[in-house]
Amino acid sequence: MSEQELRRKLVAIGKKAFDYRLLSGTWGNISARIGKDRMLITPSGFEKAALKPSDIVLMDLEGNVLRGKWKPSSEVPMHSLIYKAREDVNAVIHTHSHYAIALAVVGQEIPVLTSEFASVVGHNVPVTRYVTSGTQEFAEEVVRTLGKGKAVLLRNHGVVAVGDSLEDAFQTALLVEDEARTFILASSLGYAKPLDINEVKKLREAYLKGYGQEKRRLNLKL
What we know:
This protein is an alpha+beta fold and 222 residues long. The chain has a single domain (3-211), classed as Class II aldolase/adducin N-terminal domain (L-fuculose-1-phosphate Aldolase), CATH 3.40.225.10. Helices cover 41% and strands 14% of the residues. The protein has seven helices and seven strands; from the N terminus they run H-E-E-E-E-H-E-H-H-H-E-E-H-H. The protein has helices at residues 3-19, 76-85, 98-106, 115-120, 136-146, 166-189, 197-209, and strands at residues 29-34, 38-41, 57-60, 65-67, 91-95, 151-154, 158-163. A seven-stranded antiparallel beta sheet has the order 4-3-2-1-5-7-6, sandwiched between helices. Strand 3 (57-60) and strand 4 (65-67) form a beta hairpin. Helix 1 (3-19) runs parallel beside helix 6 (166-189), helix 2 runs parallel beside helix 5 and helix 3 (98-106) crosses helix 6 (166-189). The longest helix has 24 residues, at 166-189.
């Protein structure tokens, strides 16, 4: 995929995240790996619904701006470190969705409750320690807590979701918010019983195999 195509896709994902209320105002940030050691990332202080492809900043993974007229997101250290630590990750989305933040505030991880979440995410979503965002320590805490997973809750802050593509990362971010909402609603009615770990593994393996078909994605109509 060309840089220009990836810029357009990143902008489209930003609009989708805004439409689905995963982001509000100028909060949150999105990036996509380009090549092995570069990334495209949203600029600081921009509403994601109003971005244009030319607003996106091209950087290397050492934090140097290679192309762009705006200051990049303050979370460059986190995005860079995730790409360095995870060769399988090609996109990172940091959201501020309401139900997930509520759980992050109380330090409650999100258990696997539904078959859809088991299939696409496949693990409980852990919570980081609280660390000031935008710092190297914050980036290291996110990478440590994320491990080999697809998502993590940021204590008193938000969500980070990763994927092998922008669509994959967006789908994960959306499902994290849905699962957080399900957990909160189910807990208000009684015990929110997680799926058995063996069932989670079975559903995840079946999803990755795609039942002999192309891996399923949300139809984002980018």
